[in-house]
Design a protein that fits this description.
By secondary structure, the chain is of the alpha/beta class. It has two domains: 230 residues, Vaccinia Virus protein VP39 (Rossmann fold, 3-Layer(aba) Sandwich); 39 residues. 40% of the residues lie in helices and 15% in strands. The chain has a seven-stranded mixed beta sheet with strand order 5-4-3-6-7-9-8. A two-stranded antiparallel sheet has the order 1-2. The longest helix has 27 residues. About 5% of the residues have low confidence. The protein binds S-adenosylmethionine. S-adenosylmethionine (SAM) binds next to helix 8.
């Protein structure tokens, strides 16, 4: 078993990723997380949006998943991105990790798969079905005017423009340094077990502070949200969000999910739960 202190070093991760290739999912998988990735959870209500005790205007609505631009930090060998893509996050997913071994491996194995062809076919089928449904509705709404009806149906079906599935990106980037993205780039950031790894290393407080600032900067104003999945209890994690009220207008919302029985950190810690921390800009 590895010592916790190793998790904060890129040398540790490079060596581990060299030796153990293949999929490895820390903490929780997408099927649990997706319950939290809904506009209802990600768009905080008006009364949570306070700065210096003053109520702010209601935050913006979170966009539907097909329009979301997503940044996954410390992606490792997790297949969260692929599962999200498969489930309709087709607007662009960027995976970053500071381990160059990890990113090279992810690029090599990812390029060989046919996920895009499958997802595009699914999107096309759903688009056609939706269009047919609308067309049938128009038909029944305007039964009395057969001529008009036929012209609507043929126009809709002949001029389908299918949403294009965006390819995922994999970049070797240290999330605790300045991020190479403009302000307002992403709708959603997911940090699953990466905060915990960073906290194991030297100079963690300064690094986490900078990571929080950068994550807030690259999230879109009004609705951009960051989801952090951690083994840390609220009393040990909340300070990283709470001291940052200017960054996270809605404060932090905390959820508890049972741990599945996998992963080294699960065995090494006493709690039976992981916590999900959600902050919105
Ligand atoms: C515990 S693993 C979690 C991997 C993956 N997110 C998952 O849930 O399966 C932590 C990951 O964070 C990455 N990581 C640690 N510190 C990082 C940093 N400063 N910048 C980017 N990635 C980092 C490590 O290389 C490792 O892949």
């Amino acid at each position: 078993m590895s010592s916790f202190s190793n998790y904060g070093s890129v040398e540790y991760w490079n060596k581990r990723y060299e030796q153990e290739k293949g999929v490895f999912e820390w903490y929780q998988n997408y099927s649990t997380l997706k319950e939290f990735l809904t506009p209802a959870v990600l768009s905080p209500s008006k009364n949570l949006a306070k700065i210096d005790g003053e109520e702010e205007a209601c935050l913006g609505e979170f966009p539907p998943k097909e329009l979301c631009k997503v940044l996954i930090v410390g992606c490792g060998y997790s297949r969260l991105g692929e599962e999200m893509l498969n489930d309709g996050y087709i607007g662009g997913i960027v995976n970053i990790d500071y381990s160059n071994v990890c990113i090279e491996e992810r690029k090599n194995t990812h390029d060989n798969n046919d996920i895009y062809r499958k997802v595009q076919a699914k999107v096309n089928r759903e688009t056609r079905e939706e269009l047919n449904r609308k067309s049938s509705k128009e038909k029944s709404d305007e039964e009395s005017d057969t001529l008009k009806n036929n012209s609507i149906r043929s126009k809709s079906i002949n001029s389908i423009s299918y949403p294009q599935v965006q390819r995922m990106e994999f970049e070797c980037i240290d999330v605790t340094k300045d991020l190479p993205y403009p302000d307002n780039s992403f709708d959603l950031i997911i940090n699953k077990a990466a905060l915990d790894a960073i906290l194991c290393g030297n100079g963690a407080l300064t690094k986490v502070k900078h990571m929080m600032q950068e994550c807030s900067r690259v999230l879109k104003d009004g609705h951009g949200s960051m989801v952090v999945v951690s083994h840390g209890r609220p009393e040990d994690r909340i300070m990283y969000f709470e001291n940052n009220e200017k960054l996270w207008r809605g404060g932090v919302r905390i959820y508890k999910v049972p741990k599945p029985n996998v992963g080294v950190l699960v065995a090494a810690t006493k709690s039976k739960h992981h916590h999900i921390y959600i902050s919105s800009k």
